[in-house]
Inverse folding.
């Protein structure tokens, strides 16, 4: 079946009742033939498709109303739809019936059709009941620009033609001050400078507007503004999202997005790099960072989760996000069954998931660092790393050089040191006790044997006399664990297998603690090395070498004075299951074991006893590490390596994406991850969309990305263009920016959407050109003021006879306050930062418990885009202004209007501090009179002068507050100290605090936080 015919069998968009009124009023009043997509499909989708649509499992009466062939076929003498004859169509009889047993849709399923809707269906059937390809699935085609007298911009031509048909016209152009403020917020997310405002007000010409437009498009803040929206779509966050919601490092991806918009990376390349940057023939660091997109899903580090379940969650999340971000449709509805309204099947859903089955990952993450970390150095860090690497190579060469002097010294050492051993002296305990109730018996040679009660956990306290007659300090302690026939499996531990786990060895001399700097052992169990004792975790254990003597050597940071009375050891054993010491003794030595040449490590002693050519090389390498002959070379090399290590630790990382052998992907009936009865699927795309071209036997993410941005795929361009339009008008041409399918809204100007989409693809997916085209239009530059008539006839501005107005996004509300108060640090890119936050807000975060530490210095005043995004506990200020937690893809932020927002603007330390900084600036730069100061402040915050009423109101407010603070100077001193920025020492605190009442009012105005 041809693709066009196949597409005609599927559903389309749903119009709200009000949109139907706007677009058609009633079908009976139309002179032209009805359009299935515009007039009919919305009615059927809203009322009928749930039971008579694509989903076979919930279909009733073997009837598909989304498929013309099925809808019009003969059913033993009657037709549900009798094309050309509405009166004989069962559909009309059912929707018009008063009989509750016959009427469709049933009362308990959906609302009955209105008389206008029934009339529309009748007219459509009488006109032949033609079906159309769903508008969003139809191929993109060139659309002719309407010819409208006096209109040059193609966008304006489409809008003006519709306005003329509806007997409307464009609103006047916005006031220059409003227009420059609008353009600045829309393109940079920041308010305009006073210079920009005044320059444009003095010369509001077309050339001046174009210059301003180019300035903002070229600003590094343009990329930040565009990134705010993109990060919502891809659900960017700094934390895992599930359970403990631990932190993870992904900020280099955010920097990539900002850079991509600033450099105007073509959108097709932008798409390919994110979905499959790691699969490119020659992946760059940039493309690998871009592929972090595949890691932005929520993940869990909870040890009790089922890995298989969470792998299924991750796969489903990626498919939902892919569908929303690029296809603009609710593919996620097909996770459990065939889509009820759109032509996506459950098999399509899991076939999409199969594209991502090659991503190497685990169902349970570990400590939020569950995947290889990809270092992402800055250019400066990269240059420094290369320089250090070169210098290290040169220093290594010097260090490895063999001189006659070095060779002779080495040969002499090798001959003399074969039998060198430290001299150990047993320390016979004066006392040995068990906190767990075991019996500790001290033998004549100082050995201690445990018997009797065998507790799960225990701490031994051993008091040891020191040799007060010795002049030599004790430089090392050895705990020798010994086998004994009285112990399980011959010991030396008390566990059933003879093992032991020693967590910590605490030591004190004359009440002062001893710090160990090194711990070595003759043998250590895998995962239980001796140096665990220095870290205080897990401990030292012996398996499989039980039943024989082993020794643990501890070297103190400072030698122990033998003149001290006694050495007290506490042997902590908390592993459980009786993994305690069974028999041991303590020895001491005055030999300097840090002298690796005089007293080599055990492994080196073994090499000295049995030398060969290969072992000779190992011995020489050991000798290099300790000989005084190479002190200079060794120190230089060590210093360079320390610098390199410090540099590498300072480099930001992101979650790397590594492709591996794809895991099996099955259809999960009803989305049940435990049900393996579904068929195995491989990567493929829905049959009703253009076919995918595969480079190999199995399509992969790179093939998928290229399929998305292929010229034949109509969805991606329409979806992106519709959303860019929303950024500059507050709504898309189709308001359903997250769903261009059957339940979405048909575009108010479908021809304009297609024309823009074709131009976007034709331009080489040039995002800045698209943006420039939109904001250059007369449609964009209109005033947002609305007449009573227009408000009544077109309340949602679907005709675009005016601009729209809306509250700024959460990040921009804060950025604006910081900017007008001169606190904003506008550096671009970098790791996330933490603004002030109420104490205790993170109290419920666990695994681990976390205390919020707000950023200091410049980081406190960075743009909201860089705020640490804690999914389960989003920053309260962002939350109050409707920022999404980004647990899922968000295509459109809702905008609420609540008292809580006013409280945030009045009380959040960020806004209080901004008000104080703005007050200080007013007093320092606003002149000497109240009027001049208020004018300066109003220009600064709102790009205009205050009205007489605004002036008198705020003057009264200032005078009242000034009297209060003059009587309560301690309160004035307290309020001006809010925040980290320095408080002016030249200005009286009472005057600054008094003006803060004015500036807090200014920052709280609806006009201040709105874009007009």
């Amino acid at each position: 079946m041809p693709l066009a015919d196949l597409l005609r069998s599927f559903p389309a968009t749903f119009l709200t009742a009000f949109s139907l009124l706007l677009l058609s009023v009633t079908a009976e009043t139309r002179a032209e033939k009805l359009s299935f997509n515009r007039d009919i499909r919305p009615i059927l989708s809203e009322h009928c498709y749930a039971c008579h649509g694509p989903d076979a499992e919930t279909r009733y009466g073997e009837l598909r109303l989304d498929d013309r062939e099925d809808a019009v076929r003969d059913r033993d003498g009657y037709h549900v739809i009798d094309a050309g004859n509405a009166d004989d169509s069962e559909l009309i009889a059912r929707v018009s019936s008063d009989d509750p047993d016959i009427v469709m849709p049933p009362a308990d399923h959906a609302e009955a059709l209105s008389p206008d809707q029934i009339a529309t269906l009748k007219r459509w059937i009488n006109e032949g009941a033609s079906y159309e390809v769903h508008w969003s699935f139809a191929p993109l085609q060139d659309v002719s620009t309407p010819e409208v007298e006096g209109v040059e911009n193609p966008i304006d031509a489409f809008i003006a033609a519709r306005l003329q048909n509806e007997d409307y016209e464009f609103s006047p152009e916005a006031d220059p001050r409003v227009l420059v403020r609008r353009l600045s917020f829309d393109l940079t997310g920041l308010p305009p400078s006073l210079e920009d405002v005044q320059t444009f007000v003095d010369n509001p010409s077309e050339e001046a507007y174009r210059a301003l437009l180019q300035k903002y498009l070229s600003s590094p803040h343009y990329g930040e503004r565009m990134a705010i929206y993109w990060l919502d779509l891809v659900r960017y966050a700094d934390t895992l999202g599930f359970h403990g919601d631990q932190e993870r490092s992904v900020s280099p991806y955010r920097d990539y997005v900002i850079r991509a918009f600033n450099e105007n990376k073509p959108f097709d390349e932008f798409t390919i790099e994110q979905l499959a940057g790691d699969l490119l023939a020659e992946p760059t660091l940039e493309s690998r960072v871009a592929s972090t997109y595949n890691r932005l899903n929520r993940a869990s580090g909870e040890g009790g989760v089922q890995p298989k379940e969470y792998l299924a969650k991750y796969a489903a999340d990626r498919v939902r996000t892919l569908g929303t971000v690029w296809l603009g449709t609710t593919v996620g509805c097909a996770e459990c069954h065939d889509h009820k309204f759109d032509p996506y099947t459950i098999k399509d859903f899991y076939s999409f998931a199969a594209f991502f089955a090659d991503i190497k990952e685990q169902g349970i993450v570990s400590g939020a660092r569950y995947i290889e970390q990809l270092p992402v150095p800055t250019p400066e860090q990269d240059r420094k790393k290369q320089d250090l690497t070169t210098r290290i190579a040169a220093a290594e060469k010097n260090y490895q050089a063999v001189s006659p002097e070095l060779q002779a010294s080495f040969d002499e050492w090798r001959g003399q040191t074969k039998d060198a051993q430290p001299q150990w002296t047993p320390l016979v305990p004066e006392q040995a006790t068990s906190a767990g109730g075991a019996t500790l018996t001290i033998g004549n040679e100082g050995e201690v044997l445990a018997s009797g009660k065998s507790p799960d956990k225990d701490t031994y306290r051993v008091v040891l006399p020191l040799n007060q007659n010795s002049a030599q300090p004790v430089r090392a302690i050895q705990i020798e664990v010994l086998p004994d026939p009285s112990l399980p499996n011959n010991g030396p531990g008390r566990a059933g297998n003879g093992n032991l786990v020693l967590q910590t060895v605490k030591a004190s001399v004359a009440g002062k603690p001893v710090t160990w700097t090194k711990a070595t052992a003759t043998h250590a169990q895998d995962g239980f090395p001796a140096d665990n004792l220095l870290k205080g975790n897990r401990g030292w254990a012996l398996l499989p070498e039980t039943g024989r003597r082993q020794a643990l050597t501890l070297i103190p940071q400072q030698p122990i004075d033998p003149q001290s009375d006694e050495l007290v050891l506490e042997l902590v054993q908390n592993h459980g299951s009786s993994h305690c010491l069974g028999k041991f003794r303590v020895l001491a030595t005055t030999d300097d074991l840090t002298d690796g040449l005089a007293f080599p490590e055990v492994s080196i002693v073994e090499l000295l006893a049995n030398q060969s050519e290969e072992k000779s090389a190992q011995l020489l390498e050991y000798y290099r590490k300790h000989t005084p002959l190479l002190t200079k070379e060794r120190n230089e090399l060590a210093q360079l390596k320390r610098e390199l290590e410090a540099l590498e630790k300072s480099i930001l990382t992101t979650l790397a994406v590594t492709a591996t052998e794809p895991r099996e992907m099955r259809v999960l009936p009803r989305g049940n991850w435990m049900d393996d009865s579904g068929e195995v699927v491989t990567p493929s795309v829905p049959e009703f969309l253009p076919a995918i071209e595969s480079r190999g036997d199995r399509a992969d993410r790179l093939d998928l990305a290229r399929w998305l941005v292929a010229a034949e795929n109509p969805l991606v361009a329409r979806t992106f263009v519709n959303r860019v339009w929303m950024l500059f008008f507050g709504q898309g041409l189709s308001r359903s920016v997250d769903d261009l399918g059957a339940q979405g809204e048909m575009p108010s100007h479908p021809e304009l959407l297609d024309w823009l989409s074709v131009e976007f693809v034709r331009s080489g997916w040039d995002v800045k050109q698209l943006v420039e085209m939109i904001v250059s239009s007369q449609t964009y530059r209109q005033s947002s003021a609305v007449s009573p008539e227009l408000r009544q006839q077109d309340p949602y501005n679907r005709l675009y006879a005016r601009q729209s107005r809306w509250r700024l996004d959460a990040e921009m509300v804060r950025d604006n306050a910081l900017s007008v108060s001169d606190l904003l640090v506008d550096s671009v890119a970098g790791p996330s930062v933490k603004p002030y936050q109420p104490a205790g807000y993170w109290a419920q975060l666990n695994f681990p418990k976390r205390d919020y530490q707000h950023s200091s210095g410049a980081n406190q005043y960075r743009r909201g885009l860089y705020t640490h995004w804690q999914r389960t506990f989003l920053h309260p200020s962002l939350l109050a202004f409707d920022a999404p937690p980004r647990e899922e893809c968000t295509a459109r932020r809702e905008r609420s209007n609540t008292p809580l927002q006013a409280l945030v603007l009045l009380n959040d330390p960020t806004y209080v501090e901004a008000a104080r900084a703005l007050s200080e600036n007013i007093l320092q730069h606003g002149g000497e009179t109240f009027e001049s100061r208020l004018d300066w402040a109003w220009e600064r915050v709102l790009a205009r002068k205050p009205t007489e009423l605004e002036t008198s109101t705020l003057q009264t407010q200032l005078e009242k507050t000034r009297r209060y603070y003059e009587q309560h100077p301690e309160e004035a001193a307290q309020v001006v100290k809010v925040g980290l920025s320095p408080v002016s020492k030249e200005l009286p605190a009472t005057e600054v605090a008094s003006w803060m009442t004015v500036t807090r009012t200014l920052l709280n105005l609806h006009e201040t936080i709105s874009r007009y």
About this structure: The two ends are 51 Å apart (CA to CA).
